[in-house]
Amino acid sequence: MSIAENITKVRQTMDRAAAEHGRDPTSVRLLAVSKTFAAEAVIQAADSGQIAFGENYLQEAIDKQQAVHSLRPDLSLEWHFIGPIQSNKTRPIAEHFAWVHALDREKIARRLSEQRPQDLPPLNVCLQVNVSGEDSKSGVAPAEVLALAQVVTILPGLSLRGLMAIPEPADDFESQRKPFALLRALQQQLTEAGIPTDTLSMGMSADMHAAIAEGATIVRIGTSIFGKRDYAN
Ligand SMILES: *Cc1c(COP(=O)(O)O)cnc(C)c1O
Q1: Which portions of the chain are predicted below pLDDT 70?
Q2: Closest of 120, 194, 231, 142 to residue 222, by C-alpha
Q3: Do 96 and 78 contact (CB within 8 A), yes or no?
Q4: pTM above the 0.85 mark?
């Protein structure tokens, strides 16, 4: 199947999942995760109407953005940085992306805000929450989400959009839903504390349906669009 056909299929699955759970299908956005795939794959997806692309590795992402731009200067894409953020890489991230999904430390937040170029709108950010307990190294603990949100929300170079999670893989639907429900509850807690947000970045190829059931507004899909990744390249 072509990338165009895969995107059509993913969008249909998203629409069906939304309808099944009483949600407006237009309230769920598709982020195409293009890590390890070439600029040509991004262009094929863009020609099927895809606008938002997610990347995890900074140098790969910047090279790809430049390659896409030189091949197709007519395309206006929205790039999301979804990987872990090292503090010595904040400047290029602040310069080259519209969104960051995995913010989990105050120090990184302050650097991104300071380094966001003045001529760009504030960087859209999601706080990554560790919804799977001790096993996972990244993400802020659920009990610390509010404190971090209170800091981030006043930084001038950032726009706090919501929360993001990467739960431990689970096979059955009900187990997949639990961490997503927790993320939704944490977002509700922020709203009640006077910090309303509009984004839940949750759901990947294997658990997209459960994420949409629990209120995902951005699903981050790689494999179902581009195929299996080969890290040897
Ligand atoms: C790679 C990646 C994805 C996409 O995963 P698939 O299972 O290929 O859909 C989504 N989110 C993050 C943070 C990723 O690193």
Answers
A1: 134-136, 233
A2: 231
A3: no
A4: yes
Q: Encode pLDDT of 126-148 as tens digits.
A: 999 999 876 667 899 999 999 99
- 3-225, what's its fold? TIM Barrel (3.20.20)
Q: Are 157 and 114 in contact (CB under 8 A)?
A: yes
The residue whose CB lies within 8 Å of the most ligand 1 atoms, and thus the one to mutate among 220, 224, 225, 228, is 220
The DSSP line for 166-181 is: -PPP-SSHHHHHHHHH
Structure tokens at 65: 């953005």
Domain boundaries, the chain: 3-225
For residue 135, what pLDDT is reported? 65
Residue whose tokens read 């790809």: 64
The DSSP element (H or E) to which 18 belongs, if any, is: helix 3-20
**Taking the mean position of all CA atoms in its chain, how far away is CA 231?**
21
Half-sphere exposure of 159 (CA within 13 A, CB side): 10
* 220 CA: nearest ligand 1 atom: 10
End-to-end distance of the chain based on CA atoms, in angstroms?
21
